[in-house]
Amino acid sequence: MITLLIVADDFTGALDTGVQLAGCGAPTRVVTDPEFSPANAAGAEVLVIDAETRHLPPSQAGAIVEGIVRRAVEQKVPYIYKKTDSALRGNVGAELGALLAASGEKALPFLPAYPQIGRCTRGGVHYIEGRPVAESVFGIDPFEPVRHSDIAGLIGAQSGVPVHSLPADAPAPEGQGIYVYDASSLADLERAGQTLAAAGRLHISAGCAGFGAVLPRLLGLGRAQQPPKPRLDPRLLVVCGSVNPITVAQLDAAEEAGFARLRLTPRQKLEPGYWNTPEGEADRARIEALLQANPRVLLDSNDAGGNGPTADYAAGLGCGLEEMRVRIASSIGDLVAGLLHSPAVGTLLMTGGDTLLQVMRCAGVRELEPLCELEKGVVLARCTYNGCTRHVITKSGGFGQTSLLTDLAARLAAQADTTGTAAQADKIRNV
Hints:
The protein is an alpha/beta fold. The chain has helices at about 10-20, 60-75, 90-105, 150-155, 185-200, 210, 215-220, 245-255, 265-270, 280-295, 310-315, 320-340, 355-360, 405-430; strands at about 5-10, 30, 45-50, 80-85, 105-110, 120, 125-130, 130, 165, 175-180, 205, 235-240, 260-265, 295-300, 345-350, 365-375, 380-385, 390-395. Helix content is about 40%, strand content about 20%. A 15-stranded mixed sheet has the order 9-10-5-11-4-1-3-2-16-17-18-15-12-14-13, sandwiched between helices. α12 packs across α13 (about 355-360). The chain is globular. The protein starts with a strand and ends with a helix.
């Protein structure tokens, strides 16, 4: 029986919130089918549905969320959580309004802060590392810029539902509408959550992975004994479909540290079906050879010095921004899905929700199981591909320190050294 349904608007967001529950021992499933029924989630306590509404028109996004919530209410799922992006990208107003309308509740508590990674809400304004979100790197994103730092204004741009701003220590709301809670620390999120739980006001709620980390304790989910972390292949293939400057800086640092870096050409990214052409198949074979020769590889969709060449190539094809985004994600999906069978591919790290979704779709994978966080916002998951288990690390484009990729590679190498030492010790003991 599902206790908690989480509805996310993209794949990496679904995983970074789902892992908060899985990491506490709550059996958690993450699926990419908006029509998936909670009744079919056998053995799970938490179901996360990636509704893939991030890039849809607001009305369409709201309709999808409303349908998911209505089915959950009909099946008497006790708790529903609308996962929003921690930088407020996407159709936040339309989706929160749809959740409230479909739930039958009169008030929706919204806790958008993720103070664990420096994303806070003060006075109803959302901040990224101390800067209003619309003035941060997320305000200049070429595909989904955030125009409002004031959360009431952001919601109001897509919904007519009344919006109220509250401090973290406010009593549980008695009125109607969406109630936005301030939070500058994890303690603030816990304080607000405890008040809401005591008043029985968490049947519906919304926020990002920040408040998601608090939900297990509030709802009594999970168990004391957590599953062990798996051993990972020390070879690392990083697949980047993000243009976020945070990720670009991480790639640059990794290249400087010795990672092999392959930048996809505009044609490889934008020509439909390219990887199924003779030239594309030859390029894929060369990429596989690169993986065999190098234990750490960056597969990058960004042009050197900015993405002007890709934009120019797209313009020559008559592609607008949205079609360009879709074509790039689909191309990466075709390429990487064709590499997954190769023994040259070790641990896979994918950054960007579009990239992750398209790779999984092209590989015929519709579900990932979140296992644990390797760092905040960096999720380790596993899936079954052609009868084999493959581990995948995922992260949103806007997460992480500059040294993230080199730090992860060092951890994988250290883990492999420990495994090798343990195996050698076993051999000695068995002599």
